[in-house]
Design goal:
The complex is a heterodimer of chains A (277) and B (291).
Chain A: H1 2-7, H2 9-37, H3 41-46, H4 59-67, H5 70-101, H6 107-119, H7 122-135, H8 143-146, H9 153-164, H10 168-176, H11 181-192, H12 194-210, H13 213-218, H14 227-237, H15 242-262, H16 264-276
Helix pairs in contact in A: 2-15, 4-15, 5-9, 5-12, 6-9, 10-11, 12-16, 14-15
Chain B: H1 4-32, E1 35-36, E2 45-46, H2 50-56, H3 59-92, H4 96-111, H5 114-124, H6 131-140, H7 151-179, H8 183-191, H9 196-207, H10 209-224, H11 228-233, H12 246-255, H13 260-286
Antiparallel strand pairs in B: 1-2
Helix pairs in contact in B: 2-13, 3-7, 3-10, 4-7, 7-10, 10-13, 12-13
The chains are: A mainly alpha (277), B mainly alpha (291).
């Protein structure tokens, strides 16, 4: 590449500038959100031409934190996301292991069933699922979000693909040494699945943290809401207080954005793993 | 290995959950579409294909279907074009740090809750104080535009937002595909005197065939199901239902009008549209792409 990279140097600069322009378009809404959240709403309305706040203020954030049960919403989101992510990692890895390493009757049909759950859009299933949740008395509770999400068809599929790459001889050798089925899962399979678990954890957490449709149909009271649903209520109730709405949006967008910046490599690898397997 | 007790011990709870929350709702979703179903009523009657018959003369349904197809068609086309070009530009850079930087920046909107970024973009599009009108005024002297309140502007506004929110995934997927192309291919082409654009069309694109067909299908399927931005940016379907799409119409019919039978019939239509895409993709997948 030595010679050609010199020849192309001019091109590299041009490409970098083009990409910078696009990157700026991606970041601009974030900057605008942050700056607006530090302005007073008065200033937003009467000085729209000014980019920087004339007077920096935390009034938007104070409105969010004092005039809404923001901490309950945050807590609800954390509970649901953490519970579902932990459960999905367990159910997906152990089911993937069973489908990959064991022979049993009806295996193909059952696996086909797992795959078919991934193909059906949530618009078809959401109405009956709402009726079922209502019927068993879980409506307007966090369990309504957690219990249906404990098993993930995609997770099982992903883990099975990864288990298939682990040599059977490894499990059989452990079996000869007297290890039980669960022991093989915990001490041989799990360590080998690490990259798969990381990707699955990241995307399950994001999916649940960002989920809007399920909370929208399953939750009704203000206190039991998770953040995305709560944001729409907050922004409707305070629609004239733009600074507070942007402060609330910032508080919801920042945790996941920081998570991305801290775990860049895992995120990028996770996308390729889950998209390509 | 064989151990039926262990297998059933693991699979039983898993398949009970799958049966209750996936299989039953799938069957139920189709079944309800044949009923005049209102959850508040004690008795709901079987009405055969009546819900589906009603669709043909429902102007809002027809408009939502057209809007959905227009939204998916335009957004996915632009999305694939933009992401292919940006992924190619990124992978041409010789500095690994720069490549990683751009991939992460473009991916940022993908991790944010769609509902929150929609609310932020609602502010960007605001007529009086929004950033977009401000920039148009300062740069080109254009008078304020009521983006979300004008029937002809709502859909373009949502398409631009959706592109912003969703290009990151495909950039990463295409980049990964491009990284897998052996560099000798490009070097050979260079010796033959091929420029950057020729290399893209004669090497990158053909070798990426399988990835592109997969990514296009996944993008179409996910865009058919998009919902949050329509609820925020096209309030109540937008002016003259210009921002009404099938997902929003299903939600509104099921949970506000409480006509769950009719909503399920619309959901079946959406399901069929998605199945068509899936089948076409699987056909394409059998084609021999390859080196």
């Amino acid at each position: 590449m030595g010679n050609s990279s010199k020849k192309y140097y001019k091109w590299y600069i041009i490409i970098t500038i083009i990409l910078m322009v696009f990157a700026l378009m991606i970041i601009a809404p974030y900057i605008w959100m942050m700056l607006t959240s530090f302005k007073s709403t008065r200033e937003v309305l009467y000085n729209p031409g000014k980019v920087m706040p004339i007077k920096w203020t935390l009034s938007g954030y104070i409105t969010v934190l004092t005039k809404s049960p923001f901490f309950s919403w945050f807590k609800n989101s954390v509970i649901v996301s953490v519970a579902v992510t932990a459960a999905v990692i367990f159910t997906s890895t152990i089911t993937g292991y069973v489908f990959s390493k064991y022979r049993f009757k009806g295996k193909n049909i059952l696996f086909w069933l797992v795959l078919s759950t991934m193909m059906v859009p949530s618009q078809i299933t959401m109405i009956p699922r709402f009726l079922i949740i209502n019927q068993v008395g879980l409506y307007n509770s966090l369990q309504a979000l957690i219990i249906p999400a404990l098993v993930s068809g995609f997770g099982i599929y992903l883990c099975r693909q990864f288990c298939d790459d682990i040599p059977d001889s490894l499990c059989e050798a452990a079996k000869l040494d007297g290890a039980g089925d669960f022991r093989i899962y915990a001490s041989i399979i799990m360590p080998q699945l690490r990259p798969c678990i990381a990707a699955l954890a990241i995307f399950t957490f994001l999916d649940i943290w960002n989920d809007y449709l399920n909370p929208l149909i399953m939750l009704s009271s203000l206190k039991s809401m998770t953040l995305p649903l709560a944001l729409t209520y907050f922004s409707d109730a305070h629609s004239t207080d733009i600074s507070a709405v942007m402060a609330a949006s910032a508080l919801i967008m920042l945790p996941v954005t920081i998570l991305l910046l801290c775990f860049q490599k895992q995120f990028i690898k996770g996308v390729t793993i889950s998209g390509m397997k | 290995m064989k151990n039926n007790r262990f297998v059933y011990f693991v699979l039983l709870p898993i398949f009970i959950l799958l049966a209750v929350f996936f299989v039953l709702p799938i069957v139920g979703g189709f079944a309800i579409s044949f009923f005049d179903y209102n959850p508040l009523r004690a008795i709901n009657h079987f009405i055969g294909f009546e819900n589906f018959g009603k669709l043909i003369s429902d102007k809002i349904f027809l408009k939502s279907t057209v809007n959905t197809l227009v939204f998916v068609g335009i957004t996915v086309t632009l999305n694939i074009f933009i992401t292919l070009v940006l992924a190619q530009l990124i992978s041409m850079l010789p500095w690994a740090k720069f490549r990683a930087f751009f991939r992460v920046v473009f991916f940022m909107p993908c991790v944010a809750p769609l509902i929150a970024s929609s609310v932020v973009w609602g502010g960007l599009y605001a007529t009086k104080y929004g950033l977009i009108n401000n920039m148009l005024k300062n740069l080109f002297g254009i008078a304020p535009v009521n983006w979300l309140g004008t029937a002809s502007h709502v859909m373009p506004a949502i398409i631009i937002f959706t592109l912003w929110a969703d290009i990151g995934y495909n950039i990463i997927l295409f980049s990964a595909g491009m990284d897998g192309i052996p560099p000798d291919f490009y070097e050979a082409a260079e010796i033959d005197g091929a420029g950057m654009i020729k290399k893209f069309f004669y090497i990158t694109l053909p070798l990426l065939g399988r990835t592109v067909s997969f990514v296009v299908a996944m993008t179409i399927i996910s865009h058919f199901q998009m919902f949050a931005q329509f609820q925020v940016l096209a309030k109540l379907g937008g002016p003259e239902n210009s921002g009404n799409v099938l997902t929003y119409y299903i939600y509104k019919t099921a949970f506000q009008t409480k006509d769950m039978g009719y909503a399920s019939a619309i959901a079946v239509v959406l399901f069929i549209l998605i199945m068509i895409v899936t089948v076409i993709q699987q056909r394409l997948n059998r084609v021999e792409w390859g080196y």
